[in-house]
Fold this protein.
Amino acid sequence: MDSLNPWGSSQVKDYERMRREFGIDPMPRVLEGNLMSERSLIMGQRDFNRVEIAMENGEKFAAMTGLMPSGQMHLGSKAVIDQMIYFQSRGAQIHIAVADLESLATREISLEKGREIALENFLLNYIAMGLKPCNFYFQSSNTYVQKLAFVVSREVTLSEMKGIYGFVDSKRMLELNSPLVQVADILSPQIYDEPMPTIVPVGADQDPHIRLTRDISGRMNMIKVTRKDGKFQFSIGGQGDVKEYVKIIKKIVKTHGLRILKENLAYRTIDTTEEGVNLDAIELHLARDERVLNNYSTIPPSSIILRLETGLHGGKMSKSVPESTVSLNDNPVDVSKKIKKALTGGRESVEEQKKLGGNPYICPVFELYLYHLSRTDKHIREVEETCKSGARLCGNCKSEAAELMSTYLVELKEKRESSRHLIPEYLGNENGMH
Ligand code: SF4
């Protein structure tokens, strides 16, 4: 991939290639009631089945995201919060980390200022959008996550960090440290509480964090299980006594009605039948039972990976390019002006557009409708079809988008003002986890 990472401004050119290159699976099915899923704006997933099973069975699961308090919340971040709200409605415990240490270190934003930005520009918008009370915490005051970041750092080497993030030797240690704090954020719900499915909705540029976290999660478990040639193989890591780990494996074998085929304790492995038993269920069970011997056992977090919204002037929508970005706290008049200056998929002239039609699939204005403005399929289909047929002209189309966006921003502002008194309900336990 072309240097796609959380800090750059590159847009993904080929999602299919990205899926192949990084082993991302397609969504197994459309999530009903989830607009981004219904419109194919979720480009892929990792281990989503764990979350789906938890949602279907009403079992405990978590959803995790973070924010960097360094500016305004824009539409790209809104897409992630839309997903968090969806998973909260499906029963997820919600955890949101404020990366205020990172904004202090990288942008010289004081912790006080970072706190103000996080509450005013982000949390108030989340509440106005419909997020219910959750665990909203600041990395600077969460000593639990800080310690965990130190622990997880033992599981990764410098060369792996370079491989995942494309770091060069001149990078500051801070830039290596920040992803490790994020790994700690993502694993913390499981380590603080107990192993459970955890969904992390991310933009495609954040996928490196998920890959790193999943690798580290696997390494922190002593017992691993794989399915191969019609059997399960349990293997015990480390060099020490295996006795207690063998007890855990045997208990799981019994609970799931499996039979032991071969016990090779010199090689620290036990092979069993698999008899159609779900591997995910075994992994979850193992990670939970291992907890009596290992404080850091987890299952790998799952993710859904969102297509990145294009900025109004191309590239990815990012707060570092304000003229190309719509922020939720922007003045509606300014936003209308920005939208009217946006790139489009239109033709050179009105005549040509009427004759040949426009191309909505390369148009950032169409993306505004697709991600945020069209609340019904009927409306989005109408925009798409009238664009392609030439019945819709870009000027009118932008005016409609600007009006819809202004209405949305005005309503959101009103809700922000009436939500301010609710903030304390989200800051229940700032020094740790709920
Ligand atoms: S008509 Fe609308 S959707 Fe089509 S290219 Fe122009 S701005 Fe984009």
